[in-house]
Structure formats: C-alpha cells, structure tokens
Amino acid sequence: MAGRPRASSQGMLEEAASELFLEQGYAKTTIEQITQRAGVSRNTFFNYFGQKSELLWVELDASLKALTDALGAASDATPPLEAVEQALLATAAAFPAGRAPLVLTQHETMGIDDELRAAGLARALQHADAIELFLSCRLTGQDAALRSRAVALAVVGAAAAAVGRWAADGPAREPLADYVARAAHPVLTGFAIG
Amino acid sequence: MAGRPRASSQGMLEEAASELFLEQGYAKTTIEQITQRAGVSRNTFFNYFGQKSELLWVELDASLKALTDALGAASDATPPLEAVEQALLATAAAFPAGRAPLVLTQHETMGIDDELRAAGLARALQHADAIELFLSCRLTGQDAALRSRAVALAVVGAAAAAVGRWAADGPAREPLADYVARAAHPVLTGFAIG
DNA sequence: AGCAATAAATAGATCGCGTACAATAATGAC
DNA sequence: GTCATTATTGTACGCGATCTATTTATTGCT
User: Fold this and answer.
1) Which of A95, A113, B45, B120 is the most exposed, fewest CB within 10 Å of its CB?
2) C-beta contacts of B4-13 below 8 A and 24+ residues apart
3) Which residues in chain B are closer than 8 Å to A121, comparing Cβ atoms?
4) Non-local CB neighbours of A6 within 8 Å, separated by 6+ positions
5) How far is the CA of A42 from the C1' of D21 (A)?
6) Cα(A189)–Cα(A70) distance, integer angstroms
7) How far apart are CA A109 and CA B32, in angstroms?
8) Where is the HTH tetR-type domain (chains A, B) (predicted)?
9) CA-CA distances (angstroms) from residue A154 to A4, A140, B128, B155?
C-alpha cells in the first residue's frame, strides 16, 4: 500500500535554493529556477514546501520540534518558568557555535526583506504557542491566561534577540545557549517574582 | 507647487475594505473589489497602501508613531527601562476600552491566517526597533547591544499578549493600559535587577 | 505474470498580488 | 495662456500560489 516513492528529495531543493539565493538574492530567484536546478518540475516544489519562504526556515522548524519535546519531557516537580528556561537552553544547545543557518548570516547578500522577516516571525510565534500551551496547563491563579501568553511571547522575543546577536557576532562567538541564557533569564525571573 | 489634489481618500478604501472583509473574509476579497466599491481604479490602491495587508494594521501604524513620540519626549533623568514602560502605557492609553481594532475582534469572521498574523508581527517588530533604538543610546556596559534588543523584543511580546487578551475579553474589559502594565512590568523589572 | 490500489510527479490552466511604464487630468505658479 | 507638479488611470507583465487532470512508479493480491 505504498505508492510511488519520493524521487526528488527535499534536500536537493533546499540546496539548489541556497545556491541561487546566494548567487542572485532571494527576491530575484524564482521557484522555476529552483526546480530547474534541482531537476524537477515546478509543481513538485509545492509537494515539499507550502511557500517559497519556507526554504529559509527549515532549521527553525527543527528547533520547534526540539522545543516541544523538551517541554514535554519536563518533570512536574520543576517550577513551570524554570522548565521553560531549561527547555529553551536545551533547544539552543542544538546550534553549535561554528555553524549558523544561512538565512541569519547571509541575509545581507540574499536581500532579505520584510516578507522574509515576517516569515521568520511566524516561526517564532509557533515557538511561543508551544510555550504558552505548556504554561497554561501549569500556571494557576487569576490572570493565568494573560501571564501564560505574556511569558511565552516575551521569552521568545528575548530568545530571538539572542539568536540575532549570536549570528551577527561571527563564527568566533560563544555557543548560542549562552546568549539565550543572558537574554531570557531576566524575563523569567521578572515573571517569577512579579 | 501643489499638483492635482487627492480625490479618493484613504479612508474610503479602508471602509470599503472593512465591509468586504466582514462580508466574505480577507482572503476572498480582492483588491479590485475594494477599489470598485470605493469608486476608484485598481492602481489607485497602491498609491495609498503598499500591500493589501496594510489595510488591517492602520491603527497599529498610528500607535508606532505615538510610541516613538513618547520615547522621544522621555526625560533624561528617568531610568531607561522606566521610560520604556511609561511610553508603552502612554501609547496603550490611546486605545479606549470600548473600541478595539476590527482585525483583533473580528479575525475569526475575517478568516485571518498566517499571512495576516505575520503582517501584524512585522508591525510589532517596528515597535521593537523603536524601543531598541532608544535603549541602545541609554544603556551602557557590556552586552548593551544584546540587552537592548532583548528588552525591546521581550517587552513588545508581552505587550502583544496584552493586546490579544484585551481584545478577546470583549467590550466590557478594562482599558488596554491595565493589561499592558500587568504583562510588561515583570519583563522590565526582570531586566532592571538582572 | 497480471491487476487493482496507492501515491508521487507532471502538465496545463487560472487567479490575484504587486510592479513598471506611459498617458491623462487637475491644480498652482508664472 | 504655458509650465511644472501631482493624482489618477490604462495596459501589460512577472511570479507566487491553487486547482484539476493525467501520467508514472511502486506495493500487495490473485
């Protein structure tokens, strides 16, 4: 009961796209060019990606899965906000200091514009949703709903700032987790005492 | 030196668009339909709006101006983080409890999807940029760049959570500034002590 | 082997956003 | 009146994204 196997892998499309983005920028690269270089038909692109912008955020999609896993594995004994912090650091640990996603380091030559930033932000929102879902089950008291979402969006914002700085600091930087810790810890302590 | 006066006002396009969005949703409404109802040509739309999604976030654009003004008017004597909090509250004060932007309350019937959320997030990013610019001139010490951006993104995230809750709580809610205070204050105290 | 069932890949068409460029209309300055 | 300036309109086009139908490749059953 298994139909035709996937011939053109998703990775080939990503590679072809990365090359073209670096050569001539994101906006000037058409989906047709990507599929031609990958040796498949144009329509095949949409079997693997819903939108062109998804090509750049594959790494972030993986990190979303890591975050939900880490949150799901959190013990009930640890305080909720601490669990969030640990899950964030564990997720960040998957990014070694040496190699950062292309979209972060090469956004200049790729000509990343608002559309791209927005697509990245949509990914960040998914991370926030995961954290909010976790917190809304653990936090109690009045304002729990507001606090859950506020914590989630605030801490994701801080983490995004950390990622941006980390990428900008070049290959000689410290691991991403250090940056995330410095940016996110104040947020969580602030909510813990307030 | 004043050429042809503007005949079709921006407000008419916004009204026509709001009607159509409520009638048939955002995605199913074309720019041509909007301009037809407003009685202008399709191209005229692009004299007033760069993209279709801008129609929904006009109120947020006004709030961005209010925020930059409030930040610019901040006295040098007040601590930077306090100045940010006061500016946020002043900006939120412009939204009375009774009337919330359509996009926030009617996003269900309008069929707001990811594209729309992303467009709203792009506006939120501009708010964060304004706060970061303010802070990067005032904060000192190592990590000032990271901290400036982390504070800005985190506090804007918290404010966004407040706006979402505020809109969801219906017309009988308290003023928006109360929500923003509850969501943003922990973030700022967290960074103040950390 | 032959045959259905399933699923991927392709082809072809269409819609609508957004851009570019030229042409026209309405105003004030002279 | 002429001229410069600005808004509006017309026309065309590239490209992203969706849809439907068709072809191709694989598995499992007889």
Assistant:
1) A113
2) B7/B40, B8/B38, B8/B39, B8/B40, B8/B44, B10/B48, B10/B49, B12/B38, B12/B39, B12/B40, B13/B38, B13/B40, B13/B45, B13/B48, B13/B49, B13/B55
3) 118, 121-122, 125
4) none
5) 16
6) 20
7) 35
8) 7-67
9) 45, 19, 12, 6
A117 is written with which tokens?
């930033």
User: At CB < 8 Å, which residues of chain B contact A?
Assistant: 114, 117-119, 121-122, 125, 128, 143, 145-147, 149-150, 152-158, 160-162, 164-165, 179, 182-191, 193-194
Q: Specify whether the CB–CB gap between A124 and A73 falls below 8 A.
A: no
The answer to whether the CB of A157 falls within 8 A of the CB of B154 is: yes
Q: Looking at domain B6-50, does it have CATH number 1.10.10.60?
A: yes
Q: Sketch the domain layout of chain B as residue ranges.
A: 6-50, 57-193
Q: What is the pLDDT of residues A5-44, one digit of tens each?
A: 998 789 999 999 999 999 999 999 999 999 999 999 999 9
Measure the CA–CA gap between A43 and A75, rounded to whole angstroms: 45
Handedness of CA A32, A35, A36, A41 (dihedral sign): negative
pLDDT value of residue A164:
94
Assigned superfamily of B57-193: Tetracycline Repressor, domain 2 (1.10.357.10)
Nearest nucleic acid nucleotide to A45, CA to C1' distance: C9
Does residue A1 have a pLDDT over 70?
no
Cα separation, A139 vs B87, whole angstroms: 29
Residue A96 CB lies within 7 Å of the nucleic strand D: no
Strand D contact at CB of residue B44, distance < 7 A: yes
Residue B129 to residues A93, A166, B76, Cα–Cα distance (Å): 27, 18, 20
Which pTM value belongs to this model? 0.91
